[in-house]
Protein: S-locus linked F-box protein type-6
Amino acid sequence: MADGIIKKLSEDVVIFIFFRLPVKSLMRFKFVSKSFFSLIQSSSFINLYLYNTTFRDEYILLKRCFIQENNQYKTILSFLAGGDDDSLNPNFQDLDVTHLTSTRNCDHDQLIGPCHGLMALMDTQTTILFNPSTRDYRPLRPSPFGCPQGFHRCIQAVGFGFDTVSNDYKVVRTSIIYKVDYDDEYPEERDRKFEVYDLGIDYWRELDNLSQQLTTFCVTHCSQMFYKGACHWIASLDIDAYIILCFDMSSETFRSLKIPESCHIIYGPTCKLALVHDTLTLIYYPYPEPEIPVEKDLINIWFMKEYNVYESWIRKYTIRGLLIDSPLTVWKGYLLLYQSRSGCLMSYNLNSNDVREFNFHGYPKSLRAIVYKDSLTSIPRGSEHTKQVYKF
Structure:
């Protein structure tokens, strides 16, 4: 019967209707008829669905940790949808992904994305690639590169994005090799390593020609973002000389963007990257000291109106007196989501100045959040020896 209905409707009409549906509803149509199944599974429809998001809602993926009796951490992913009153409500049941992440700490993991609807949950050892809409995930092969005995490898930055030239997803890791010296408070840096993982061929490789492109730098924790074909991080060249460090996924080269205000690695303010209406956004916020001086107790939000043009930076918002641990993301273009010092998810309305506390909390400093829209993007399986794609 459904096939008969499709024949009466043009494919354009069916596609127009499907574009308005969330993935959860769309998946039900796969089993209504063979025609629906073939259409929804086709690569052309998946690509069209990815880029036609006008009528679909924004969701929030929230990662948080809880400490357990054995001093190990449990990691939970929450899938949240917004209400008309800017409330947040569960869209699916929470997922316990502790078995996929490190249980020894909760402040070194990174939630990166979305890139074509895919996200990466990464720590110093593991990378999990997943689609929050289809609930598919794939653990990636660990990096085979270590360091000699007597040395220590410190992961400085991680990134995930898409290379339009090779038509493949990539994972990036930068690290510093230190000589182990337990008597020295500041161990000696001996080398820098740059690793790239190509998802399509399931292969890690080291890049040997990048050390000369960089001087001393330290990447700010949880500052990464993929935008305009490049991974972006907030990085310091010196104790108070900050830049936006960029790694182009196609050319595999570094470059940098100047920021509009100075930062300080110890005393603040510090920075967070975000995207607001597809515009590169920089959020300056105070270092979370026990007591913040009045002159430091402000948050400045800057927009780069024209990408890679320093003169196009404009300060859009200034917020005073907001007790914040760190910003997480900007939702709907006007709601700044942040975590409080006690580990609660909060929002600040940039239009009305209203503050709201949500009923979601975790261990202090463990919250991560990403704004995303539904997608049908599948996770490439790579070679025949690649780990399988699983369902959450």
Q: What stands out?
A: The chain has a mean pLDDT of 84. Residues 11-19 form the longest helix (9 residues).
